[in-house]
Amino acid sequence: MEFEEISTFLNTTANKLESCWDLQVISNIANQRIPDFIMGGRGSLLRADIYILWTQWFIESICDPDVFINSAQGYAHIVEAVQKRIPFIFAGVSDYERQKLTKFIARLIDKEVQRRRLRKRIYINLDDKKLLWDIYGPEPRCWICGYKFTKWAQNKFLGYSNYTEAPLPQFIDYMTLHGLTQRDISVEVDHAIPFSKGGKEEEDNLRLSCGWCNSHKSDRISLYDVGVRPRIVEHPKLGKHSVPHPFWIVRLLSVRRRCEHERGCDKNVDNAQFTVVSKHPEGAMNPTNLRVVCAEHDPLGSSRLVSREVAEQMRY
Description:
By secondary structure, the protein is an alpha+beta fold. The protein has helices at residues 3-13, 23-30, 36-39, 43-62, 75-89, 95-116, 126-135, 151-157, 211-217, 246-256, 308-314, and strands at residues 171-173, 187-191, 206-210, 231-235, 239-243, 274-278, 290-294, 305-307.
């Protein structure tokens, strides 16, 4: 991209909060082509998450699924509601195409209704846990961050009686605070597609996760599920420093699942644990400024670790 294009884009889109109610300004911004450098190499993830959200808004705008969750009205009423709106949305298509679109969109809405209806969780029994543990092989790790489960975590997860309180680490990664609590280093069963969003209680949707990843993932599925700024913490060596929201870390790790060292790295979640580092050290730790790294390629080195006392003060 040429200098003039870069200048034009930044001049059109940056520092426009004072004009956020001006339709002409908004239209000019919307017509810009987003250069890759703005996305920080996360274009695929950022676009995918926002496209899914936009599609969800579109579907819900035609017929609100929440109206039908506890209603006696069923699929036929959804079809009727969609049928009324389709001619206004797709005015230029044939009757046959409108019928197909009606059926397709009505099924999407009905599926969303079924997903949102309260379902009873199935208790994951000990046999299911043992099966998952066996599937993960001789050295199970968290499917998101690659944390290697300890013998203590294994004993607790599988219900063995010979475990006591976990020996927690004395030094904590200030970016994640992973290891601050016993839950962080425990083994938990995670629904890759959250249960509350229709995820099934079946083997292909169940994963072994550390408690830290599972708790911060929760029922979120999109970067845009977290609308906050990075926090500023006081690091004993680095001074005031930006840290990302934990879910941004989880979302990125769950997609990348390997080290992003610029010269290449063979580490992945099957053989290493990962954290994040900023691409631009002085920049805010938002999703466009996060890079996945293994311990070997972590530029922060020992500076990443802070004492438990300091970590406690950084807790959310």
